[in-house]
Amino acid sequence: MTKLLYVTVNPKSTEHSFSLQTGEAFLESYKAANPNAEVEVLNLYSEDVQEIDTDVLSAWGKFATGEELSEVEIAKVGTMTKHLEQFMAADEYVFVTPMWNFSFPARLKMYIDSVLLAGKTFAYTAEGPKGLMEGKKALHIQATGGVYTGSGLNFGDDYLRQALAFTGVTEYDALFIEGMAMNPEKAEEIKEEAIAKAKELGRAFSTVNA
Known about the structure:
Low-confidence stretches: none
Number of helices: 6
Mean pLDDT: 95
Strand order of the largest sheet: 2-1-3-6-7
Helix content: 40-55%
GO molecular function: electron transfer activity; FMN binding; oxidoreductase activity, acting on NAD(P)H as acceptor; oxidoreductase activity, acting on NAD(P)H, quinone or similar compound as acceptor
Strand content: 15-25%
Radius of gyration: 18 Å
EC number: 1.6.5.-, 1.7.1.17
Subunit structure: Homodimer.
CATH class: Alpha Beta
InterPro entries: Flavodoxin_fold, Flavoprotein-like_sf, FMN-dep_NADH:Q_OxRdtase_AzoR1, NADH:quinone_OxRdtase_FMN_depd
Distance between the termini: 5 Å
Number of strands: 7
Largest sheet: 5 strands, parallel
CATH architecture: 3-Layer(aba) Sandwich
Cofactor: FMN
Number of domains: 1
Order of helices and strands: EHEHHEHEEEHEH
């Protein structure tokens, strides 16, 4: 059975978010086209996401020496492990984000730090790093008030694309909803065009028999 991991990174409600409304349109279309697929929804603003901090670094050091972890270290590493295992179990990924100051919200970087782990999602080999998540695919849905396509300033999408490629997920597409703040009189039209594209992507996204 195909498993889609649908990750949202936006503190706004759906009704007040261009990216979330577009993502919902994708998800509805995807579910209709893949009725047997399993969909897991992960809202990074509704649950704990662990950053790499002193406790995490200490725990990693103790793994190498065999020392016992503290309760705090166990809890923090456990949160990261939960997200890692969920990520590894999925076949397809959708990330729905706004652009904030040329990138995505910091909670997504914290999440990526949990799923980029040597020996799990990539390996160091004699030929260099090798992704261990090959054969999977991803979509990034991103809303921006300005227009950044071709500007060289869309650092969040560039980073997400490269981070996933590092794990072997090289089949990657992006849907940008752009220019609503620059052209507020066209905001609704821009959103509706993006929703129509999202529905098309939802129907065609899965390449695995659900």
